[in-house]
Design a protein that fits this description.
Length: 183
């Protein structure tokens, strides 16, 4: 194989035998199948001061609370994204990763089950992060049961204009289910 054609191939850095692929999509497919539980934190991550992490935690809780509305039409699936650096995301969720894609550069965390309420309360430093109290004993809350929890993903997102000017930044996206009722 010539050097030129070798350069255009995409190597899997996680395989011992340095397997290469013709396209990035091929490498991503391989990663999804063979390295679906890979979650080592990459060495380029920098430490973020605790007070900066706390600010982003407050942003997350505020965005969750905004979606805990008191109207039946707001029950069900919710999704929102916040701007968040890779370092910051790892500072908050690094030890809870369920997946890191080396080739895609994205991370994923999934919290489910009753214990996830307490686990995220500890992370967010807010014991009431998952519920919002309204008048007349009415409550809206994040529904966390087995396999239907809160999915958190981080990746670079952006777009280009017709002249090829690209804008992009890191975003953390949160997906969860809201339920409501009397208590
Ligand atoms: Zn591999």
């Amino acid at each position: 194989m010539s050097i030129a054609s070798n350069l255009t191939r995409f190597p899997c850095t996680l395989c011992d035998n340095n397997r290469t692929f013709k396209s990035k999509a091929g490498l991503q497919r391989h990663e999804n199948i063979k390295h679906s539980d890979y979650k080592d934190i990459p060495t380029h991550i920098l430490l973020v001061p605790e007070y900066e992490l706390l600010h982003v935690k407050h942003v997350i809780v505020k965005e969750i609370q905004k979606r805990l509305k008191n109207h039946y039409s707001n029950k069900g699936g919710q999704v929102f994204s916040i701007h968040c650096s890779e370092n910051c995301f790892i500072g908050i969720f690094g030890q809870y990763l369920t997946r890191y894609s080396v080739c895609g550069g994205w991370y994923r965390c999934f919290f489910d089950g009753e214990e996830a309420i307490d686990q995220l309360a500890e992370i967010f430093k807010d014991v009431r992060w998952a519920e919002r109290n309204y008048e007349n004993r009415q409550l809206s809350w994040v529904k966390l049961c087995l396999e239907r929890g809160i999915l958190i993903e981080w990746k670079i997102r952006g777009f280009s204009d017709k002249a090829g000017h690209r804008c992009e930044s890191g975003e953390a996206t949160f997906r969860f289910i809201v339920d409501q009722g009397q208590f």
